[in-house]
Amino acid sequence: MSGYRVGVLGATGAVGSTILEVLAERDFPAAEVVPFASERSAGRKLSWNGATIECRPLSPETIQGLDVVLSSAGGAVSAEWAPQLVEAGAVVVDNTSYWRMHEDVPLVVAGVNPDAAATHRGIVANPNCTTMVAMMALAPIHRAVGIERLVVSTYQAVSGTGQRAIEELQAQSRAVLAGEDVPPPAIYPHRIAFNVLPQVEVFKEGDDYTTEERKVMAETRKILAIGEEVSISATCARVPVVSGHSESVNVRTREDLSPDDCRALLAGAPGVIVVDYPAAATYPMAIDAAGQDDVLVGRIRRDPGQERTLNLWIAGDNLRKGAATNAVQVAELLIERNLLG
Hints:
This protein is an alpha/beta fold. It has two domains: 4-127 and 323-336, NAD(P)-binding Rossmann-like Domain (Rossmann fold, 3-Layer(aba) Sandwich); 131-318, Dihydrodipicolinate Reductase, domain 2 (2-Layer Sandwich). The chain has helices at 14-25, 75-87, 129-145, 163-178, 211-224, 259-267, 286-289, 320-336; strands at 4-9, 30-36, 45-48, 51-54, 68-71, 91-94, 123-125, 147-156, 231-238, 245-253, 272-274, 295-302, 309-316. The strands form three sheets. It has a six-stranded mixed β-sheet with strand order 9-8-10-13-12-11. It has a five-stranded parallel β-sheet with strand order 2-1-5-6-7, with helices on both faces. Helix 7 (286-289) links the parallel strand 11 (272-274) and strand 12 (295-302). The longest helix has 17 residues, at 129-145. The chain is globular, with a radius of gyration of 20 Å. The mean pLDDT is 96.
């Protein structure tokens, strides 16, 4: 058969299952798709593109003969198996946080820094979904007028944590609405239903910023190739939304950029849709971003207290462009530029 043998690690998870959907939707040139899952899920049959495929466990034998692997099975699995997959001849597009900040691993957002993929040594990292959504709007601004400072506040959907977090939100919400005792939290430190948690991921000892906030700041610098001359601050919150991250971004630019010019700039950016008619209550919302690959940007306005500073509201599907779609787009990029093998 013509085409590529494509592996999907974590195929039964929230991101992995979305990767399978996106591969089919985009008619990816796959001769065969091989889903990998935990030992518990090995043998499970999945429907894909009109066919039935069977999950396999990871082993030195099952990983042979793959051309490209889209990995979303967690950092520990990726740390162990990505090098083995590369040794077996595959290029790995990895969705976990493990490889992102390795100096010899490019961190690629399709449509933002595709040239970085050419430097890969077998592994290409996908950014954090929160970073990814912001980059679609911020990269065009940085290319046009430069960025001096960023203040990012995020409102993140529970699907970013995984399927069990979705189930926790649903179970708690049903209990609240039924007037029943709410199940105690198991995934988050507090109840997420009808609540907002100003904590995404964990606080390391001695650090007032969470690991998620550190990711957003560090990954932004790597993707945009900016140093400490650009100040970046992030606050990440978890909200009771199933899909779709929302972000409030305050951006000071080196050169002045009016709101109208910003709208025109972003309207011409790939993968971005400007939704900015606030008088008609039309602006980016998570419910509208969910299920699509484009990132929505609106509420573009001047910061009245800062020179050369704009406020933006951004919404994007964290499972699609924030993870699965970008991974597939990077795989397409590797094919187009003859960077497999």
